[in-house]
Write a structure and sequence with these properties.
The complex is a heterodimer of chains A (about 250) and B (about 120). In chain A, about 30% of the residues lie in helices and about 15% in strands. Chain A is an alpha+beta fold. Chain A folds into two domains: about 100 residues, Ubiquitin-like (UB roll) (Roll), CATH 3.10.20.30; about 130 residues, Fumarate Reductase Iron-sulfur Protein, Chain B, domain 2 (Orthogonal Bundle), CATH 1.10.1060.10. In chain A, the strands form two sheets. A five-stranded mixed beta sheet of chain A has the order 2-1-5-3-4. A two-stranded antiparallel sheet of chain A has the order 6-7. Chain B has a domain of about 80 residues: Up-down Bundle (3 helical TM bundles of succinate and fumarate reductases). In chain B, helix 1 packs across helix 3 and helix 2 packs across helix 3. Helices cover about 80% and strands about 0% of the residues of chain B. Chain B contains four helices and no strands. The chains are: A alpha+beta (about 250), B mainly alpha (about 120). At the A-B interface, helix 9 of A face helix 1 and helix 3 of B. Bound molecules: FE2/S2 (inorganic) cluster (FES).
Chain lengths: ~250, ~120
């Protein structure tokens, strides 16, 4: 058998009931080549400190709950392997730009509110009665929004976005991708209602086109694209609203 | 639902975008022509940018439009970028910086319009 390898994992710890501020702790973790960073955290919890707190569920990059800053980069810890960092130390911290609830768990309530605010459901373009049957969509029409349905709400894009870091009211990449998913759906007629948010001071113009959100997205949703397409849409709405009887935001 | 304030960013973003497009298309060539080729006498014939030629260019409608667009839109592009970079560096100078940035582009725009109209047609 080959010799047991160890990796140093530095964890940003924070217990809200006793700690003034977050601090780092270093653990020496034995690992095998098939171990993810999430499994490293689990090893620490099982063997060193049972109070270590983090979110996880699927362990296969689909539930979106295990995001953390790994050596400063927002990543899903379940699909990031310890072997890729060895022999260097791995630093794991709670996702940037969010308030820390405990250790690696962040408070997502602001994000959840944003998801709700984009009206993430189909607002029918024209109401159909049951006996008119289902809405028909061609494969090409499905392709128009397909990419934006892949979001798993992991919020890595928010941890990547410098503008969200500066202004937490910014609607942000993930919620905009979801908004765009519904706007692009041929069955939906809600774009005008959603424009109020898109064109508002919390809307797309906070973005300075850094593009890091799309780079860190584990599902290739390309939220930066959704944001920037909607800058054009909002600018059109801004200048053309005087020509149409119904405007967007006040 | 809470009411939201419409952002007036599209005006500045539009000018920024137009200036960015223009500077990407013409900026490097202009730097090369005015800063290198003409002063060093490279490639272009003697007197390409002589005063009479430039005056004639500025008096022509299309030439006037070109000079105006290149000066004004470049400035709007630059100040928007500077203003947002300040924000990104953590300097939230607020209204003062906004006025200084966009104000200088505005003043530059007015001056270039006045001068260009002043040289006649
Ligand atoms: S545990 Fe589900 S995405 Fe990582």
């Amino acid at each position: 058998m080959s010799e047991q390898k160890f990796i140093e994992i530095e964890v940003l710890r924070y217990k809200p009931e006793s700690d003034e501020a977050p601090h780092s702790e270093v653990y020496k973790v034995p690992f095998t080549d098939d171990m993810s960073v999430l499994q490293g955290a689990q090893y620490i919890k099982d063997n060193f400190d049972g109070s270590l707190t983090y979110r996880w569920s699927c362990r296969m990059a689909i539930c979106g709950s295990c995001g953390m800053m790994i050596n400063g980069v927002p990543k899903l810890s379940c699909e990031t392997f310890i072997r890729d960092y060895y022999p260097n130390r791995i630093t794991i911290e709670a996702l940037a730009h969010f308030p820390i609830e405990k250790d690696l768990v962040v408070d997502l309530s602001g994000f959840i509110e944003k998801l709700e605010s984009v009206q993430p459901y189909i607002i029918p373009a024209e109401k159909r009665s049951l006996d008119q049957g289902e809405y028909i969509q061609t494969p090409a029409q499905v392709q128009d929004y397909m990419q934006f349905t892949s979001c798993i709400n992991c919020t890595l894009c928010y941890a990547a976005c410098p503008q969200f870091g500066l202004n937490p009211d910014f609607i942000g990449p993930g919620a905009m991708a979801l908004l765009h998913r519904y706007n692009m759906d041929s069955r939906d007629g809600g774009a005008e209602q959603r424009m109020e948010l898109v064109a508002s001071e919390e809307g797309v113009f906070n973005c300075s086109a850094v593009g890091y959100c799309s780079e860190v997205c584990p599902k290739h949703v390309d939220p930066a694209n959704a944001v920037n397409i909607n800058k054009t849409n909002a600018a059109k709405d801004y200048f053309l609203r005087f020509l149409s009887p119904k405007g967007g935001a006040k | 639902m809470k009411t939201r304030k419409r952002s007036n960013a599209p005006i500045f973003w539009g000018l920024f975008g137009a200036g960015g497009m223009l500077s990407a298309l013409f900026g490097p060539a202009l730097v090369f022509i005015t800063g290198l080729a003409v002063p060093l006498g490279l490639l272009l014939p003697q007197g390409t940018m002589s005063y009479p030629k430039m005056l004639a260019f500025a008096q022509n409608f299309i030439g006037k439009g070109f000079i105006f667009a290149v000066i004004a839109l470049f400035m709007w592009h630059a100040v928007h970028r500077i203003y947002h970079s300040l924000h990104e560096f953590g300097i939230h100078a607020g209204m003062g910086a906004k006025l200084l940035c966009y104000g200088s582009a505005f003043v530059g725009t007015v001056i270039s319009a006045v001068v260009l109209l002043g040289v006649g047609f």
